[in-house]
Amino acid sequence: MKCYELQGPNGIDGLALVDKPVPEPGAGEVLVRLKAATLNYRDLLTVKGGYGSRQKFPLVPVSDGAGVIERIGPGVREFAAGDRVIGSFFESWISGEPSETKMRSALGGSVDGVLTEYRIFPKHALVRTPEHLSDTEAAALPCAGVTAWSAVIKLGGIKPGQTVLTQGTGGVSLFAIQFAKMCGARIIATSSSNAKIERLKNLGADFTLNYKATLDWGKRAREWSGQGVDLVVEVGGVGTLNESIRATRIGGTIAFIGVLAGPPPSNSRLPLMVMQQQRLQGVTVGSVEDLQAMANAISATRMKPVVDRIFSFDQVKQAFAHMESGAHFGKVAIAIG
User: Fold this and answer.
1) What is the C-alpha to C-alpha distance for residues 33 and 19, in angstroms, rounded to an integer?
2) pLDDT value of residue 259
3) Looking at residue 214, what is its pLDDT?
4) What is residue 260's predicted lDDT score, i.e. its pLDDT?
5) 255 - beta bridge partners?
6) Percentage of the chain lying above the pLDDT 70 cut
7) Checking DSSP bridges between strand 331-335 and strand 307-312, what pairing results, if any?
8) 275: Cβ–Cβ under 8 A, 6 or more apart, which residues?
9) pLDDT at 268 over 60
10) How does DSSP classify residue 14?
11) Taking Cα atoms as reference points, which of 50, 124, 100, 68 lies closest to residue 289?
């Protein structure tokens, strides 16, 4: 089989296409023929060597993939050859609260990922693909989808009539819009591109802001929503946190996910967060149980992830470069088989 490996933190150009033998599934394991993968910003950081000390080399990168079961190992009765499946981001986090042990096996980081034609999965880490989704669409779900699900539904607890603010047009933000609309919430969406803003409106955004043209977008969002938004899906990180605090209502929540916006400003609004009793909730994907719950909701509503562009397996470097450019709207996908 062919797979991509990182031999070290050498950037996109350090991705090497190598040949390996197809592995055999052991007891309780499943061999999956990967059909598609999608990229997250975390994958780009990993390729650049900027994702923490636990990163090992050589490493098969990328966490999000979907495919078809090729063979099952002894003792596997939950699945059969030919089943379409998705692999969970954390293989050891089956359910319940997170822990160091449960979060130790993160695909494409601490363990090999899915940028490969075949991969062994433990049976407990797989979820069946919703029937109405293609393999490419299903490959968008494990990291970006579950992260947005955790931010909006599981941890955010969004209810009908509440207001959610999203940032940008990456996978997590677009999933967050879709899940919030699924709950009957109102959406404020930001982007630096007027063309992308029009697409955000088509996706369901009720109010949009160009954050480059409107530097005080947090203030504007608070004014539009009345008393402030109930939840901010914060993918920018410390660089956008000030305006997120400004946008959030007293007692509201900021789901802290990303690191896209760079260093913090010098005039921190953290004291305002204290005075307004806001909650800063860290979000790091979720469990297999969360992936299953999200897949059930997607099946029931026939929701479809937003896929920006599909690259072939020999265009992996171009796919990473496209994501790095920031030109994408939704998920950047790779067709594997």
Assistant:
1) 15
2) 62
3) 96
4) 55
5) 233, 281
6) 96
7) parallel
8) none
9) yes
10) G
11) 124
**Could you tell me which residues come within 8 angstroms of residue 290 by beta carbon, excluding any fewer than 6 positions away?**
146, 149, 150, 154
Close Cβ partners of 40 (under 8 Å, ≥ 6 residues apart): 63, 64, 143, 144, 171
Q: Are 72 and 25 in contact (CB under 8 A)?
A: yes
**How big is the chain, counted in residues?**
337
- Contact between 162 and 303 (Cβ < 8 Å): no
| Burial of 160 (C-beta count, 10 Å sphere; 0-12/13-18/19+) | exposed
Q: What percent of the chain has pLDDT above 90?
A: 85
**186 in helix, strand or coil?**
strand
Backbone angles phi, psi at 280, to 5 degrees: -100, 110
For residues 156 and 178, what is the distance between their CA atoms, to the nearest angstrom?
14
DSSP character string of 23-79 = P---TTEEEEEEEEEEE-HHHHHHHTT-S-TT--SSB----EEEEEEEEE-TT--S-
- In sequence order, the β-bridge partners of residue 106 are 90
CA dihedral 243, 286, 178, 321 (to 10 degrees): 70
Once rounded to an integer, what is the mean pLDDT over residues 60-65? 97
Mean pLDDT of all residues in 147-166: 98
Collapsing DSSP states into helix, strand and coil, what is residue 315? helix
Q: Read off the tokens for 277.
A: 């009793």
